[in-house]
Amino acid sequence: VLNDVDMSQSQTDTRSMKIDEPKQSVTPDVEEILRLHAEFLNTDGASGQCADLSGADLGDTDLSGRDLSAANLSGAKLAGARLIRCKMNMTIATGADLSGADLAAADLRGINLGRAKLVEANLRRANLTGLELKDKNGQKTGKIWRSDLSSADFSGANLVDARLKSAKLDGAKFTGAHLAGTDFTGCVLAKADLTGAELDGAIIEADENTECHRILCEIAMIQRDYDRATLHNDKALALNPNDPRIVAQKGELLTWTGDPEAAVEVIEQALALDPFGQEERIHLLGFALYTLGRYQEAADAFKRITDPKVTHLAFLAASRAELGDDGAASAHSAKILRMNPEFAIASHIESIPYQDPSHRERYRAGLRKAGLPE
């Protein structure tokens, strides 16, 4: 199954990547196939030939920096191959063996890896937006056990029922990814972003793992399961009471569950625990202050964010509107609409996990005062 992916440019900055010496050179036959493939890509198919390397033995070969977009690598043997900074947009790699392959910073948007093996592969900083791990019949997901996927971008990827056992996923981005039934057993998930991901039936080990409890709390908040969120946050705090991320998470949970006053105190504790990481958590203080009706302080908190997201700007616009500063509110609203022309109050409100309907409606009123569209 191939996804509609923008192939115009890579989203990964790889200029600082160092490529090691190749283990094995490309054979003349393969080199000619790649030459014709490059010509095919450069002429939009007017000349050359799209590469068909299905079943080819390319194990331990260095293909770093090559453009293999749309190539057929189904069933190819690429174990141990170097594919650093390789571009593989919409490449068909079903059933390929990429065990131990080095795909660091590779552009893999829209690649089909159904039934592929990526055991112990290195996909650090790879862009896997739109990744598909099922074959055209929707059968058998790929294996990526023990792989290094640190900071990889899985935004919108289909990883339903995928096996990610013991993979390193610290800093990985799963925004909007389909993760139902995904097996994260033994994974390192520090600072992973699961915003908007579908996680029904996902398997995440907790036991005495602080990071897993933190992630499970985040998931439960997204799913509006506040009792389960509190349970996991309490367990994480019991294991590591001085982790600023977990303390801040408790404050966020207090905001959404209707105790913003306590939330302010807890979030301020988290900020004091990690003065250098304040910008990562100051928005949580803003949420709590807004919910308390302390609009000036809320606005001050959101203004401290160097690169605000739409949600931060929405709360800032609502804060300025509640303060009667219509000019500033309108300016922030205009920026929101430039960033997201489809922004609508109704859908945005649904993404804010207020448990108390009165808090949600007060925020809705603030957004309306700011002039944002319904």
What does this structure look like?
- By secondary structure, the chain is mostly helical.
- Helix content is 37%, strand content 0%.
- It is built from 11 helices and no strands.
- The protein has helices spanning 28-42, 210-222, 226-239, 244-256, 260-273, 278-292, 295-303, 310-322, 326-339, 345-350, 357-369.
- Helix 4 (244-256) packs antiparallel against helix 5 and helix 7 (295-303) packs antiparallel against helix 8 (310-322).
- The two termini are 36 Å apart.
- The model is unreliable at 1-22 (pLDDT under 50).
Low-confidence spans: pLDDT under 50, at least 5 residues? Answer: 1-22
Tell me the structural class. mainly alpha
Q: Please bin the fraction of helical residues.
A: 25-40%
How much is the average pLDDT?
84
SS element count, helices: 11
Report the sheet with the most strands, covering strand number, pairing sense and barrel closure: none
**SS strand fraction:** under 5%
Radius of gyration: 23 Å
Record field, number of beta strands: 0
User: What's the order of the H and E elements?
Assistant: HHHHHHHHHHH
Overall 3D shape = elongated
End-to-end C-alpha gap = 36 Å
Q: How would the blueprint of this fold be written?
A:
Blueprint lengths: L27 H15 L167 H13 L3 H14 L4 H13 L3 H14 L4 H15 L2 H9 L6 H13 L3 H14 L5 H6 L6 H13 L5
Summarize the structure.
With 374 residues, the protein is mainly alpha-helical. The protein contains 11 helices and no strands.
Features:
374 residues, mainly alpha
